[in-house]
Amino acid sequence: MNEIYLIRHGETAWNAQGRFQGKLDSALTDTGVKQAVHIGQRLAGLGISFDTFVTSPLGRTRQTAAIIAECADLPAAQDDDRLAEVSLGSWDGLTHIDIDAQWPGLLDGSTPFDWFFRSPDGESYDAAFDRAECWLRERQGVTLAVSHGLVGRIIRGAYSSLPKAEALGLPVPQDVIWRLSGGRIEAISVI
Q1: Is 11 annotated as catalytic?
Q2: What CATH number is given to the structural domain containing 42?
Q3: What is the spatial distance between Cα 155 and Cα 125, in angstroms, rounded to a whole number?
Q4: 14 near 155, Cβ under 8 Å?
C-alpha cells in the first residue's frame, strides 16, 4: 500500500513578513524551527518506517527536513525538484502591496488563491499540477515529503482529483502532517 506523509516547511522570516517566496528563500524563524521539531517528534512517536524521504531543493524545506530527520532518527532527505514551490517569477520575494504598486490592476478580480497564477512570468497552474501529478504517480511504499504551501495544496488537490479552485483553497498550516492513503487525506496534528 502506498502512503504519503506530506509536510509544509516551518515558518520563515518572509512568511512572517507576508512576502511570497516562490523559488527564493528565507530562513526558518524560531517558530519555524519549533514547528519542525514538533513534527519530527510526532513522526518519531508514530513509529512509521519510511521507504523514501524527499524534500524540495529549496533551503527552507531542506532546513525543515534536517530538523525532522534529527528528531525522528531518519536519514537525510533526497531533493526532488517537483516538490519545489510554484515560482511567481518577478513576484518572488514581494508582498501584495509590492505587486499592486508595480503591476497596477493586474490582481483586480482575483481570488485569495488564484492570484498566484497572474504573474506575467510565473509558473502556470497546469505546469505545477503536471509535476505534482507526475510525482504522485511515482510514489511507491511509504513516503515522507517536505514541501511548500502552494505546491502542497496542488499535490493534495491532484491526489483527491479536486477542481482547481477547491485545491487552491485547501489549508496550509505549518504544524500538520498530511497523510495521503487509500484515496483519503487525513490531518495529523503535531501539538
Answers
A1: no
A2: 3.40.50.1240
A3: 12
A4: no
Count other Cβ atoms within 10 Å, centred on residue 150.
25
Tell me the residue type at 52.
T
pLDDT 10s per residue in the chain (191 long)? 699 999 999 999 999 999 999 999 999 999 999 999 999 999 999 999 999 999 999 999 999 999 999 999 899 899 999 999 999 999 999 998 999 999 999 889 888 888 889 999 999 999 999 999 999 999 999 999 999 999 999 999 999 999 999 999 999 999 999 999 999 999 999 97
Beta pairing class for 78-79 and 52-55: parallel
Q: Is the pTM of this model over 0.90?
A: yes
The beta-strand segments (E) located in the chain are 3-8, 52-55, 78-79, 142-147, 176-181, 184-189
Supply the range of the domain harboring residue 167.
3-189
Spatial neighbors of 40 by CB under 8 A, at least 6 apart, are 67, 68, 69, 70, 71, 72
Query: How does 163-179 read in b/e, with b if 16+ C-beta sit within 10 Å?
Result: eeeebbebeeebbbbbb
Is 38 an active-site residue? Answer: no
From the list 3, 11, 38, 85, the catalytic residue is: 85
Give CA separation, 76 vs 73, 121, 154, in Å: 9, 33, 25
In the chain, the number of structural domains is 1
Q: What letter represents residue 53's amino acid? A: F
